[in-house]
Amino acid sequence: MYAIVRAGGRQEKVSVGDVLTIDKVEGKKGDTVELAPLLLVDGSTVTTDADVLGKAVVKAEVMGAAKGPKIIIQKYKNKTGYKKRQGHRQPLTQVKITSIDA
């Protein structure tokens, strides 16, 4: 059994036991987070009905915080002496899928 869940701004395919990195969610290590399922697949049965999915729950355990790769933003304008450099690292959270209940 697997599910497609909405995690932050993306959709992820998950099954029980998977560890994935998603956008930052509030919670400490060991807390439980619920993710919204968009699709459930159990063998040959595919569920996309909104009423059934409203009752379905995908639970995940927070493993800890993480950071994304360093992104360097550079701006430069020729002949004016203008240049600007800025860096960014996206805060992320690692979670482990513990259960998928339909």
Topology:
Elements: E1 2-7, E2 10-14, E3 19-23, E4 32-42, E5 45-47, H1 50-55, E6 57-67, E7 71-77, E8 82-88, E9 91-101
Antiparallel strand pairs: 1-2, 1-4, 3-9, 4-5, 4-6, 6-9, 7-8
Plain-language structure description:
The protein has 102 residues and is mainly beta. It has 1 helix and 9 strands; from the N terminus they run E-E-E-E-E-H-E-E-E-E. It has one helix at residues 50-55; strands at residues 2-7, 10-14, 19-23, 32-42, 45-47, 57-67, 71-77, 82-88, 91-101. The strands form 2 sheets. Strands 1, 2, 3, 4, 5, 6 and 9 form a 7-stranded antiparallel β-sheet that branches. A hairpin with a 2-residue loop joins strand 1 and strand 2. The model has no long low-confidence stretch (mean pLDDT 93).
Task: Record keyword descriptors for this entry.
single chain, 102 residues, mainly beta, seven-stranded antiparallel beta sheet, two-stranded antiparallel sheet, 65% strand, rRNA-binding, rRNA binding, RNA-binding, Large ribosomal subunit protein bL21
Give a summary of the structure in a few sentences.
The protein has one helix spanning 50-55, and strands spanning 2-7, 10-14, 19-23, 32-42, 45-47, 57-67, 71-77, 82-88, 91-101.
In angstroms, what separates the terminal alpha carbons?
10 Å
Provide the succession of SSEs. EEEEEHEEEE
Structural class based on helices, strands and sheet pairing: mainly beta
Helix content: under 10%
Mean pLDDT: 93
Largest sheet: 7 strands, antiparallel
In the predicted model, the low-confidence regions spanning at least 5 consecutive residues are none
H/I helix tally: 1
Tell me the β content: over 45%
What general form does the structure show? elongated
Instruction: State Rg.
Output: 19 Å
Task: Count the beta strands.
Answer: 9
